[in-house]
User: Fold this.
Amino acid sequence: AQSVTQLGSHVSVSEGALVLLRCNYSSSVPPYLFWYVQYPNQGLQLLLKYTSAATLVKGINGFEAEFKKSETSFHLTKPSAHMSDAAEYFCAVRQGSGGYNKLIFGAGTRLAVHP
Amino acid sequence: NAGVTQTPKFRILKIGQSMTLQCAQDMNHNYMYWYRQDPGMGLKLIYYSVGAGITDKGEVPNGYNVSRSTTEDFPLRLELAAPSQTSVYFCASSYYPHTADYEQYFGPGTRLTVT
Assistant:
């Protein structure tokens, strides 16, 4: 069965600092992995996705993530944090194969950016 | 396209009352989903549908019912509201099978309080 673990429920960085949000997955099949962002009082928006093409995936707003099979990780990074990046971030893995297309979400990491 | 829309945005229910959360999408997606989001718990799948007339249970279906009479609409019914159903509810949709895109598109959410 697939599962996702996000290390750190809260991360705080200074504006301009590196953002690193950690995600480890467990999957019995080649995984499809996603990062979603949720701004306050809004729905989830896709940041980026890994679907077995390039291992370094670039997303919106300057975010990127690297798929590392040996470490079963898909950490999200951004070189320089901006105040507008403050949000909750969710890592997700597609459940299984076949015609279900269900996502399993991690518990989320709330990112705070301070001046 | 409006994408995925949800109504209402907010609702307060008394214990034992019933209500229907509405969800509609205009992207001709065949798959639709209902999630609930509790603080620190990520998103949990309540029900999903792979097409009109076909629904199935997710992780946490107890206390809820769904129907899918059209491709566009996927309402979620709470028959006897309980305090444990206080949560934020998200509807999502996706197009499957699309070999390059397993992304789910989310609505803005409904914040429900049961007192």
Chain A touches chain B at residues 9, 32, 34, 36, 41-46, 49, 51, 90, 94, 99-103, 105-108 (CB under 8 Å). The CA atoms of residues 39 and 94 of chain A lie 22 Å apart.
